[in-house]
């Protein structure tokens, strides 16, 4: 599987995972995810969950692709650090008022679901890209020892 297809699949899973959390919290358990902002109730439905997860996944993919293109040596390590920092920052709004404990817990699980798919999924290096092909059919280990 090519890197692009694998990352596309990870993006799809990163959108599906939080929707599954939302499905359990809202329709199955019957707890409406609602935030009160400026005395206006805001119900969090499936569409906002999908859109925010998709935005996060595409932003993560784009940042990793840019880092790999321009800063190849440490791209994955830098990207992982940024992804973990973004995850931590994403919890800050959950510390405020305007939502009950169940909504807070469900939103935290939604954030974790996206991160649990994206961070390891996008960070993984392709096996095909990691293993150079030998021109004479020899193994990469033999080539590195000069016995190709």
Distinct helical segment count: 6
Q: SS-based structural class?
A: mainly alpha
- Give the ordered list of helices and strands: HEEHHHHH
User: What's the total count of β strands?
Assistant: 2
Order of adjacent strands in the largest pleated sheet: 1-2
| Cα radius of gyration in angstroms | 20 Å
Low-confidence stretches: 127-148
Largest sheet geometry? 2 strands, antiparallel
Give the overall pLDDT as a whole number.
84
- The percentage of residues in β strands lies in 5-15%
Shape, principal axes of CA atoms: elongated
- What is the helix fraction of residues, given as a range? 55-70%
For the record, give the distance between the C-alpha atoms at the N and C termini, rounded to a whole number.
27 Å
Your description of this structure?
With 148 residues, the chain is mainly alpha-helical. Strands 1-2 form a two-stranded antiparallel ribbon. A hairpin with a 2-residue loop joins strand 1 and strand 2. The longest helix is centred in the N-terminal third of the chain and has 26 residues.
Question: What is the topological layout?
Answer:
Blueprint: H1 3-28, E1 34-37, E2 40-43, H2 46-70, H3 75-90, H4 101-123, H5 127-130, H6 140-144
Antiparallel strand pairs: 1-2
Helix pairs in contact: 1-2, 1-4, 2-3, 2-4, 3-4
In short:
This protein is mainly α.
